[in-house]
Specification:
α1 links the parallel β1 and β2 (about 35-40). This protein has an 8-stranded mixed β-sheet with strand order 12-11-8-13-16-17-19-20, with helices on both faces. It has 13 helices and 21 strands. Residues about 70-75 have low confidence and may be disordered. The protein has 2 domains: about 5-185, Rossmann fold (3-Layer(aba) Sandwich), CATH 3.40.50.1950; about 195-400, Rossmann fold, CATH 3.40.50.10300. It is an alpha/beta fold. The chain is globular.
Length: about 400
C-alpha cells in the first residue's frame, strides 16, 4: 500500500526524533513520497537538512517564506500538504503537541497542516512516564480517538529520564507497518457515495427527569461513520443521546426519541446509496409523558407503553433496488436463525449479528464480535476486534453486494 502514496510526516521535539530518520528511509524504500514538517523544537534534536536529504524534499518548519523580499510563496504550504497527503503521521508526538492538536491550535506549519488535513491522521505519542499517565494527556487522546485519529500506543521500557514504563516511541519498522495498515483500511473507494448511518440509543421520556432507554454507547455506529468518511463517502450520521465527538467530515444530526429518529431518517433516506441502521432504537415509549416529575409512591406505579415506529421495516419497504440497506440484530438466543429471519422480514441486504454471549461485545466497549449475513446467504463470523476494524469489514462486505 505504501508504493506511490503521499505521506506527510510531522516531527516534534522529543528525544526519539532520531528514530524518524529511519522511518523516512523505510517509507522511501517502500516507494512512498514523503514530505516532512518539523516543529521548531524538533530542530534542536535533528537538523532539517537531515530530513531533507532523506526525503529528497524541502522540509517545512515555518509558515513564512525564508526569502520574504519579492517572494511569490504566499505561505500556504500547510494547505498544499494537507490536500496532497494520503495519510499524515505525527511522530514523535509530544504531550504539548497532542494538547495543541486536541484544542485546535495552529501556531506553526505543523499544527496548521493538521487542521487543514483531509486524510487520515496517525499520532505516535512519546514522552516520559508521568506525562503519559497524566489525566490531561489521556483525556486529550480519548478526544482525538473519538474524532477518528489513529493512535500508535507507546511501548514500555527504559526512558530518557531513567524511569522505566510506558512512553517509548515504537521502533521504526512498527511505525511503518502501522501506516501501511491504516492505508489498507482507508482506500478511497467510497467517493461520491452517500451513506446514512444511525447510532446510539433513543430516550423515551416518562417525565422531565426520567426516560426509557438502553445501554447503547453509539461507538459502533460512530466507528462506521468515521471509517466511511475516511474512505471518501458523503456521510450523514443520525445519533441518539451519546457523549461521543463527531468524526471529521461527517454531517451529524442529533435526535432523542424514536419518533425523532424516524422523522430524520425518512427525511434523508431517499437520496442515500447505503443506509446502515446501527442505532438501538427503543421498541416502546410511554403513552403519556408527565409534565412534572412523578413523585415516589409506596404502592409503586404503572406505565402504559406503546410501540415505537419500526424504522428499519419502513425503510425496507420503501428502498429502491439500487439502495443497500444494512440492519443490526442483538440476540440472546437462537442468534443466527433470528438474524436470518430479520434479514428476510425487513428486506435487508446485510445484517450484522451481535450476541450478548460473546466476550468483548458488551455495550460501551471498544471491541466487538459480529457475524455478517447477507441476502445471498453468506455467513461470515468475525473474531473479536476493535470497532473501527469491524466497521472496515462491514464496509468491505457492502462493496461485494453493490
Amino acid at each position: 500500500m505504501l508504493a506511490g502514496k503521499n505521506i506527510a510526516l510531522g516531527v516534534t521535539g522529543g528525544i526519539s526524533v532520531y528514530k524518524m530518520c529511519t522511518v523516512v528511509r523505510l517509507l522511501k524504500k517502500a516507494g512512498a513520497n514523503v514530505r516532512v514538517m518539523m516543529s521548531p523544537s524538533a530542530t534542536e534534536f535533528v537538523t532539517p537538512l537531515t530530513f531533507s536529504t532523506l526525503s529528497q524534499e524541502e522540509v517545512v518548519v515555518s509558515l513564512w517564506p525564508e526569502n520574504k523580499k519579492g517572494s511569490t510563496n504566499l505561505g500556504v504550504k500547510h494547505i498544499d500538504i494537507g490536500l496532497w497527503a494520503d495519510v499524515m503521521l505525527v511522530a514523535p508526538a509530544t504531550a504539548n503537541t497532542i494538547a495543541h492538536i486536541t484544542h485546535g491550535y495552529a501556531e506553526d506549519a505543523l499544527s496548521s497542516t493538521i487542521l487543514a488535513l483531509r486524510a487520515p491522521l496517525i499520532i505516535a505519542p512519546a514522552m516520559d512516564l508521568d506525562m503519559w499517565e497524566h489525566p490531561a494527556t489521556q483525556d486529550n487522546l480519548t478526544t482525538l480517538r473519538a474524532r477518528g485519529c489513529f493512535i500508535i500506543l507507546p511501548e514500555s521500557g527504559e526512558l530518557a529520564s531513567g524511569l522505566v514504563g510506558m512512553g517509548r516511541l515504537p521502533e521504526p519498522e512498527t511505525i511503518v507497518e502501522y501506516v501501511n495498515d491504516v492505508l489498507q483500511k482507508t482506500p478511497q473507494d467510497l467517493k461520491k457515495k452517500k451513506i446514512l448511518i444511525t447510532a446510539g440509543p433513543t430516550h423515551e421520556p416518562i417525565d422531565p427527569v426520567r426516560f426509557i432507554g438502553n445501554r447503547s454507547s453509539g461507538k459502533m455506529g460512530f466507528a462506521i461513520a468515521n471509517a466511511a468518511a475516511l474512505r471518501g463517502a458523503d456521510v450523514t450520521l443520525i445519533s441518539g443521546p451519546v457523549t461521543l465527538g463527531t468524526p471529521k467530515n461527517v454531517k451529524r444530526i442529533d435526535v432523542e426519541t424514536a419518533e425523532e429518529m424516524y422523522s430524520a431518517v425518512m427525511a434523508h433516506a431517499k437520496k442515500q446509496d447505503v443506509i446502515i441502521m446501527s442505532a438501538a432504537v427503543a421498541d416502546y415509549s410511554p403513552v403519556t409523558q408527565a409534565k412534572e416529575k412523578i413523585k415516589k409512591h409506596s404502592a409503586g406505579m404503572t406505565i402504559e407503553l406503546r410501540s415505537t415506529p419500526d424504522i428499519l421495516k419502513s425503510i425496507g419497504e420503501k428502498k429502491s433496488k439500487k439502495q443497500i440497506l444494512v440492519g443490526f440484530a442483538l440476540e440472546t438466543e437462537n442468534e443466527l436463525a433470528n438474524a436470518q429471519q430479520k434479514l428476510q422480514k425487513k428486506n435487508l441486504d446485510l445484517i450484522v449479528l451481535n450476541s450478548t454471549k460473546d466476550k468483548g461485545a458488551a455495550f460501551g466497549t471498544d471491541t466487538n464480535v459480529v457475524t455478517l449475513i447477507d441476502r445471498k446467504g453468506t455467513v461470515k463470523k468475525l473474531p473479536k476486534m476493535p470497532k473501527f476494524d469491524v466497521a472496515v469489514e462491514i464496509l468491505n462486505h457492502i462493496k461485494t453486494i453493490v
